[in-house]
Structures are given as C-alpha cells and as structure tokens.
Amino acid sequence: MIIMALNCGSSSVKYQLFDWAKREVVAKGMVERVIVGGSYIVHEVPGSENYRLEMDCANHQEAIDLLIRTVTDEVHGVLKSVHEINAVGHRVVHGGEKFTCSVLIDKNVLDTVKEVQHLAPLHNPPNIEGIEAAQALMPTVPHIAIFDTAFHQTMPDYAYVYALPYEWYEKSKVRRYGFHGTSHLYVSKRAAVLLGKNPKDTNIITMHIGNGVSHTAIKNGISVDTSMGLTPLEGAVMGTRCGDIDPAIPAFIMQKDNLSAKEIDNILNKKSGILGITGRFTDRRDVIEHADAGDKRCKLSLDIEAYRLKKYIGAYMAAVGKLDAVVFTAGVGEMAAVIREKAIEGLEHIGIILDRERNKSAMTRKRETMITTDDSPVKVFVIPTDEELVFTEDVVGILNGTYTDHMNFEYTFSKADFVRK
C-alpha cells in the first residue's frame, strides 16, 4: 500500500510517498515557488542523488501534476503509474472546532474546511486548493484530512477561552486553537515509550522549535494547553513572529507611525521575532555564530528566546502537575544545543538536571536522545519529529476502519519495539 502525504503551502507543495507494507519512505520532495514564478521540484529517493527540475507552476494543480509526473518518471520515478497510490493524506492547518481527529474528505468535510478558512487565511486556502487539485488528478482514491488543530481539541474551556467579550467567541469563534498538532502527538507518544509508560499515564511538555515555535502541556497523554492561539502568532519567540507581547503595542505603533492593520499584521508576523531583534537573521545557526563572535543583538536574541522557553516550562509544569519529561523537537529543538542548554540550565530545583555533554552530542535529526542525567527526576529528551508518519498511520487506520482518534488509536510508533528507519 502506497500512501502519499501532501502539505500544500501558499507557494509550495511538500510530498512524501510511504510504502506501508515495508514501513519505509519511498520518496519525498517539494515543489517550490508555486504561483510566484521560477518554480522547481526537488525529488529525493533514498540511496539516490536528489533530482531537480525547473518548471513553472501557475497553481497547485500544476505543481501536483509535476510531482506525479516526477514520481512516475521512467528514470527518476519510483512508481510505474499514479494508480499505485492507494490514498492521499492532506495537511489542513485549521479545522476550527469542527474536527477533533483526522477524517475522510467528502463534500461536507471540504465545505466545512472552507467555512473556517477565515481563521487561517494564509494556510487554509492553499490547503483547500491542494485537496481539490489532488482530487482532480486522483479522483478514484480516498483523500484524508489531517488537522494541525485536532490534537489540541482536548483543551478545557478555561485554557482556550480568552478574556475578551464572550460574544467574540460565540459569533466569531475567537479562541485558542493551537497548531503543530501532529508533531506534538508524535513526540509525546515517543517520549512515553522512552519512559516505559502508557501515554495516558504521562505528563509531558513538548517544545516544537523551528522557524515557527509552539509548546504544549500534555497531561495524562492529552493536550491541556498550548502556546499558539487563534493564529500561530501567539506564544514563543519565533523566526519572524513576535509571540507574546503587550496587546496595546500594535495600536500604539499604528497611531504613532500611521500604519494600517495590514501593515502592522505583516510586521508582527514577518518582521519580528529573531529577525526583529537581530535585524538580519532568522536562522539560529547564524544567530549563534554571530553571538559567539560578539554580536550583542544576536546574544540578546538567544537570551530572550531561551528565557521565554524557560518560562513556558515553568508555566506548563504548573498546568500538568508532576512532570515526567520535557521534549525538544523540530529543526532548532533537535539541533541547537546551546538554546536547549540556556533554556533548561538552572532548573535543578524543579527536578531537571542537565547533562551538558549529552546535550552537546545530541546534534542529529536521526536519533532519540536523553540530555539529562540518569538520576534527573524529570527527563529531557531530544526526539526528531515525524509528522508525515502520523499522516500515513491516520490514513491507513481510516482505510482499515480501525482509526478512532489520537487518544485511543494505537500507532506503531507508540509501541516499544518501534524502530525509526
């Protein structure tokens, strides 16, 4: 059984082909610069050199058509025909309150996703375009939606309702939703395995740190709070997003500098965060390099990011009760040892005892590592995330009729004998 995972962004289409019988990735890649011009595909097959082809794609349907022609190409492809694809799993960023788990896409599901696209105007429209394009090119196979927000639908109302006029929630559905759900799901279940415990018996703080950053408080195996809110702007310091700020600041700057709502929204989302502090960088590798060389703003950026991470650990420890583990994941979480160290050093009083040598050696996206001492009451793990595997297993579960929801469905990666290939 070949499962395709699709992640359609505003100007990109990321894909992966997974052979379920062999439990291995057959191919993966991305079509970049969709719509904007100068499009190209980078196609990766394990054991082979990457293949790149430049071809303009005016829309997502052309991009998906390009990737299908690539994966079925006689020379560079891995399939003889598109008919070898048994199902497609689609990433959908925002499901609102409508969806608490992955679902088979039919007209009603797609209409509902369209109804809530105003909650994620930058993400849901390309997700929808990708679904419709893939359905047009592969009309005979099942298409399944996997929602970023679904994992967080277990939050209690006191965690997701804002202290705003309640009619904003009733009429406009303004509330905390959270994102990166498939990543938090995967690493929390892997952490339970490393702890030798059932996920329902674990209290974990998961820290997804990439260009986008979100943290989740997981109590008894389910999300009870998360740092991102109505949109991905709230929460931690990110590559270009500001995260938590005084909400009066945007209005103050709008009035002072005569900015429009669209202009201030663009600044908060695309010109703030690490970029805003350093004035030139979003990549933490650049920030670390220049901080080591004496750049004061880069050093300040590291200090601010790590301090905010530390505060979220403390806050979520209060939310979940007796804490079993903290998990770092995603590009920065998996690779930036200095940020991890700065975030958890000095937390011995709450049971986190860092092993600095273990932390320094945990610089790989292929291995699960514990970076605390053996006698640390609270363990800290670095776990490479695998959102595409969550996509694949949800799809297979739905096709087999065994899938219920992430709380009760038995994922292969939640088993002790699971081996990541």
Chart the SSEs and their pairings.
Elements: E1 2-8, E2 12-19, E3 24-32, E4 40-44, E5 51-54, H1 60-71, E6 85-92, E7 103-104, H2 107-115, H3 124-137, E8 143-147, H4 157-160, H5 166-172, H6 181-195, E9 203-209, E10 213-219, E11 222-226, H7 248-257, H8 261-270, H9 273-278, H10 284-292, H11 296-320, E12 325-329, H12 330-335, H13 337-344, H14 356-361, E13 369-370, E14 379-382, H15 387-400
Parallel strand pairs: 1-6, 6-8, 9-12, 12-14
Antiparallel strand pairs: 1-2, 2-3, 3-4, 4-5, 7-8, 9-10, 10-11, 13-14
Summarize the structure.
By secondary structure, the protein is an alpha/beta fold. It has helices at 60-71, 107-115, 124-137, 157-160, 166-172, 181-195, 248-257, 261-270, 273-278, 284-292, 296-320, 330-335, 337-344, 356-361, 387-400, and strands at residues 2-8, 12-19, 24-32, 40-44, 51-54, 85-92, 103-104, 143-147, 203-209, 213-219, 222-226, 325-329, 369-370, 379-382.
User: What structural category characterises the helix and strand content?
Assistant: alpha/beta
Q: Give the name of the CATH superfamily of the largest domain.
A: ATPase, nucleotide binding domain
Number of beta strands? 14
Shape: globular
Total count of domains? 2
What's the helix-strand series? EEEEEHEEHHEHHHEEEHHHHHEHHHEEH
Any idea of the CATH class of the largest domain? Alpha Beta
Mean pLDDT: 93
Unreliable residue runs: none
Helical percent range? 25-40%
Taking all Cα atoms into account, the compactness measure Rg is 21 Å
User: Major sheet, described briefly?
Assistant: 8 strands, mixed
Distance between the termini: 18 Å
Known CATH architecture of the largest domain? 2-Layer Sandwich
